Amino acid sequence: MNVLLVEDDSSVGDFIVGELGAAGHYCVHKLDGEQGYEAARNGAFDVLVVDRMLPLLDGLSLVQKLRSAGDDTPVLILSALGEVDDRVQGLHSGADDYLVKPFSMAELLARLEVLYRRAAAVPADPQTTLHVEDLCMDLLRQQVLRQDIAITLQPREYRLLEYLMRHAGQVVTRAMLLEHVWGYRFDPQTNVIDVHVSRLRQKIDRDFESPLLATVRGAGYRLGPAHSG
User: Fold this and answer.
1) Distance of CA 119 to the CA centre of its chain
2) Residue 89's closest CA among 52, 116, 118, 56?
3) Which of 58, 86, 165, 190 could staple 81 via S-S, CB 3.0–4.6 A?
4) pLDDT band, residue 197 (cuts 50/70/90)
5) Which DSSP helix (H) or strand (E) runs through 190?
6) pLDDT digits 0-9 by tens, 215-228
7) Which residues form the domain of 85?
8) Is 146 domain-assigned?
């Protein structure tokens, strides 16, 4: 799983990040609600863990803002407020689950895995084509076109491009690609991603005026129109 944790207590955050990492999951930690919102909107996460009492933007407001923006990523609220009314309020904000502090890490992990499986079990999107600018992927024919020019891809390149297109405009990290395209839950310390991204970039960008596949230094990759600045 790719998890976004929004928790202002750095010691609690470091503990959760470490435990999730030990369980084979990737976790990004943000310390306030505004940072958490921006990360959720710009990243590709399977589950969000959001503390209720956050600086700048509280957890419930963060969830409401995400839902208003059309983001349906599963959210688990963490809170020291454990009364029934508190839990109900948290769920009414748009959260999918609510866990009271102090909590067992085993329970938190189990709840996250349930949310992840539940989201994965949702019937597949009937969408049969993906579009990013003038790049088109036909999912039924497994055909890729740019400006109506056919682009031949190897199977792994195709899966890589499909994942990038499904997360167009978002920064996709190496860890995300390793898990979702290669099936690794750890970094095997090879340059396999760099090699495949380079080959893919040659095929979809080399003969066209506007590059679409960008490397975001220190973060990962983004597919979409070039950003200014």
Assistant:
1) 13
2) 52
3) 86
4) very high
5) none
6) 998 889 999 987 64
7) 2-120
8) yes
Pick from 74, 92, 120: which residue ends a domain?
Answer: 120
Residue 214 C-beta-side C-alpha neighbours within 13 Å: 18
| The total number of structural domains that make up the chain | 2
Candidates 218, 202, 204; CA nearest to 168 is 204
pTM reported for the whole predicted model:
0.60
Q: Based on the fold, state whether residues 115 and 142 are members of the same structural domain.
A: no
Contact between 28 and 49 (Cβ < 8 Å): no
Contacts 24+ apart (CB under 8 A), 185-188: 185/24, 185/25, 186/24
Provide CB contacts within 8 A for 110, sequence distance 6+: none
Cα separation, 17 vs 130, in Å, equals 33
Residue 229 has pLDDT above 50, yes or no: no
187 in the Ramachandran plot: left (φ > 0), alpha (ψ -120 to 50) or beta? beta
Of all residues in the chain, what percent carry a pLDDT higher than 70? 93
Nearest to 136 by CA among 122, 147, 126, 127: 147
Q: Write down the pLDDT at residue 228.
A: 43
